[in-house]
Amino acid sequence: MDVMRIRGGTPLKGVVKTQGAKNAALPVMASCLLLKGRTLTLENVPDLHDVSTMLDLLACLGVTMERLGNRMTFSVPEEISWEAPEHLVRKMRASSLALGPLLARCGKTVLPLPGGCSIGSRPIDLHLKGLMQMGAKIEIRNGIVYAQADQLRGRRIYLDFPSVGATENLMMAAALAKGETIIENTAREPEIENLASVLRGMGVTVDTEGTGCVRIKGVEEVQGCRERVIPDRIEASTYVLAGVITGGEVTVDDIVPAHMDALLAKLEEAGVRFHVGSSSVTVFPVRRLMPVSIRAMPYPGFPTDLQPQMVATLTLANGVSLVEESVFQARFLYSEELNRMGANITIKGDTAIIQGVERLQGASVRAMDLRAGAALILAALAAEGETRIDEMVHVWRGYEAIDKKLKALGADVALEEAEEK
Ligand code: EPZ
To answer: Is 248 helix (H, G, I), strand (E, B) or coil?
Structure first.
């Protein structure tokens, strides 16, 4: 269903359960490619379009999968293909996470360069540079990466930027490299720790220290194991903001509160009252937010994947907020759509200047990417009248049953097919 209609103005009330994290599930699913004739079992795998795309990719490479609810078992034969199909890699950037494990396990791989998307160019130069430092021979011809390595060797690698994907690809490559690999200036997102747990379960020594340095001792062969995907901190935060923007009382359950510290600190600054439980957070009604300044940056900073949703929430604050985006170069395209709903957002370079308004009006808008779509949904929940959101295909990539979850919180939400164009 490609269109969502929301009639806004209802304060949301109730409890919503968090899905397994999309950005943890994708790398740990790719890590099964390290296995030879063994199985990986994952619990709490979310039912998302991006997960389906990764399943299609793994199936193309020869992995067989079994799903029982949100438990998935990946059986990997001795021999698998090492060529990632173009149409799947172009469909989802996270397919590039097959690069490291395929190269380490098969000694070679052919993988199309992932395309850019609406939030900016999405190069993988840091992934390739690290793999070459480990001894891989890499050529790029006509947008295709040809990589070959008889035996990857562990060594010290410094990442120019704490790239999540580069950290994950190099960790998986290091698992089968000869000797120890020390990766400096790594990403420190919780999803990295989830991948480290899987690699430890496979028999690999992984020290993450949580300080942006990862040490990995490679092994000859990895073992099958079982692991649980961590809760999705971005999905959970989106529902927290749904409670805030509608002035409702919402409890988000099955979370790791520590993964949401940056958001909760900003909400406290903005005057939001909330209660943090051992695995939940409840926000209480707030009449109007106070303005705040935010810089979206790598973890543990304020997450870039929550920047659009936070900007949407701040469009109704009582004053001027500033939100700077330091991770992606074009992650404000959605602001035009919010302005069509009556918001007053001005973009200056890498900063959004948000002049709070009294109210938003429903309008016809378009989701340009996953988190932009989430931002429009939040604005629609608070707006007067009806909002029509087109291109929901982006939202289904990362939000499991968001229509049902919002309806259960009292939102007036309906889905429909897009008219034939
Ligand atoms: C992961 O993408 C997430 N995706 C993104 O979530 C998230 O926004 C991003 O990390 C940052 O937290 C998954 O985990 C599947 P990066 P990734 O490598 O790994 C530049 C969502 O909405 N860069 O940390 O692609 C890059 O251009 C998605 O769930 C290089 O220049 O992000 C970007 O500006 C969106 N060269 C910045 O680093 C490289 O080799 C961050 O990229 C790699 C990255």
So the answer is: coil
